Amino acid sequence: MQLGSGFGHMPSRNYLNRKIETATFKEIQELQEAKLARQLDYLLSRSLFYREKFQAAGIRRRDFRRLKDVARFPLTTKEELRESQAAAPPLGKHIACRLEDVIRVHSSTGTTGRPSFIGLTRRDARMWTALTARSFYTQGVRKTDIVIHAAGLTLFVGGLPAKDAIESLGAMFVPIGTGASEKALMAIQLLGATAMHCTPSYATYFAEWVRRQAHLEPRALGLKKFFCGGEPGAGIPAVRTKLQEDWGARVTEGLGNADMAPIIFSECPQQSGMHGNGQEYVLVEIIDPETEEALPIERGVSGELVYTSLERECVPLLRFRTRDRVTVLDTSCPCGRTSFKLRCIGRTDDMLIVLGVNVFPSAVRDVVSSFHPRTTGEIQIILEQPGPKVAPPLKVVAECGGEGGDWNALKTEIEREIKAVLTVSASVDLVAAGTLPRHEMKGQLLKRAYESRAAG
Questions:
Q1: Contact at 8 Å (CB) between 395 and 363?
Q2: Do residues 77 and 49 touch, judged by C-beta distance below 8 A?
Q3: Distance (Å, rounded) from C-alpha 54 to C-alpha 72?
């Protein structure tokens, strides 16, 4: 079956590319199988990194015959890519094209702070635009929209690629960037903006800023759509509900990865989980992060996302561990899209273990947010020593809302609810609204107190 790329494809009302987005599992599997075979040939002929990696693992090209055979190939980690770039700058031993064919680079930063560069050829950039445009279209971007981009614009992969994608849909792109709330407010009012692209942390921060600085209710600005990503949050029920109440707008979320593509999964207006939008560009697996075993993609399965490039020239990756922990919510949707839907729980490298129980900071935030308006939903988890193991009780700082009331009673209720929902004991320290730091990009739910002590 020949399925088009979707770039430049005339959209129907609900789909940017109906053929791809409503294709059967068998049709997508056949397409991915053929594309991965070609990508493997390309890797072995162009990528020193993967030639060495396959040789070390005792893997040969002929070991791939069917799509399921990909599970026999070794996983690729971010640490390996950093080592590759350190050994062969600027783009590493995993570059698979001529450097002069690279038209743009983006970067991501990890816990070390050392930038990791991602290169794009002209064809790679077109692919990113097609995939990102489909993800935005799934969320509801239409030609009539005026979209305020309140996220990074420089090396950030959600910047220029978002611009290219939104403009390709015919919508108006307004490049505000970060740290410019006054400009964002002015643009919304003067241009009659209909939508905003930002992190959920910024959507929360901006609502508070509008009330405090402009003395306006956020919903009075008339925004109708929020496209959020970059961190878990917009899919957390209590957080989403508060954002939608503040703004009077529909909030949907997207999920991507700097090394693979800016937005790969995104929610349709059903708001019941993020659909995969890159069927012909990215092969998606879910693995058990401990055993590294591939898991079936079916409702209720939880594990780590793994991506494989199917059509990449510069830095194609095979079985790349994203460290994103996800749960499959469903394999069908009333919208008609046939790709499975998931929710991102958090990053496996942020996960905490309390007496053997896995706890994600976003889950703690969800519990605290459920007490709104008695809480603002802002939290920090205090770590007295490096994780992931944390001695109980889990230390949580949470902001009270502006309604006052009995703080001691609220503290007890939150601690009981954390115990009931997450099965771990917590010690909650309540502080006044506005005490915890606000973030215009990604929120910081963990405070590593031991680092401050060491620095002191």
A1: no
A2: no
A3: 11
Closest CA to 252 of 361, 139, 151, 335: 139
Q: Give counts: helices (H), strands (E), the chain.
A: 12, 20
pLDDT in tens, 205-254: 999 999 999 999 999 999 999 999 988 889 888 889 999 999 999 999 99
In one-letter notation, the amino acid at residue 422 is L
End-to-end CA gap in the chain: 63
Which of 100-104, 260-264, 404-408 is least confident? Answer: 404-408
Place of tokens 């990890």: 110
Quick one: which H or E segment has residue 148?
strand 146-149
268 pLDDT exceeds 80? yes
Cα-flanking dihedrals φ and ψ of residue 58, to 5°? 70, 30
Chain centroid to CA 267: how far? 12
In three-state secondary structure terms, 130 is: helix
Mutual orientation of helices 407-422 and 361-369 as an angle, nearest 10°? 130
The DSSP element (H or E) to which 149 belongs, if any, is strand 146-149
Give how far Cα 276 sits from Cα of 20, 166, 194, 243, Å. 11, 18, 25, 24
Reply yes or no on whether the pLDDT at 4 is more than 60. no
DSSP 291: T
d(CA 11, CA 253): 21
Place of tokens 């003395």: 215
Kindly state the greatest CA–CA separation across the chain: 68
Ordered domains of the chain (ranges, CATH): 1-347 (3.40.50.12780), 352-455 (3.30.300.30)
CA distance 127 to 8: 11
Residue identified by tokens 């010690």 is 427
Pair 259, 118: CB distance under 8 Å:
yes
CA distance 153 to 158: 7
Please tell me the predicted confidence (pLDDT) of residue 452.
66
Torsion over CA: 205, 206, 212, 218 (sign) = negative
- Say which residue the tokens 């994780």 belong to: 387
Which of 318-354 are b and which e, b meaning 16 or more Cβ less than 10 Å from the residue's Cβ? bbbbbbbbbbbbeeebebebbbbbbbbbbbbebbbeb
Supply 225's token pair.
Answer: 């759509």
Distances in whole angstroms, Cα of residue 28 to Cα of each of 11, 31, 33: 19, 5, 8
Helix, coil or strand: residue 388: coil
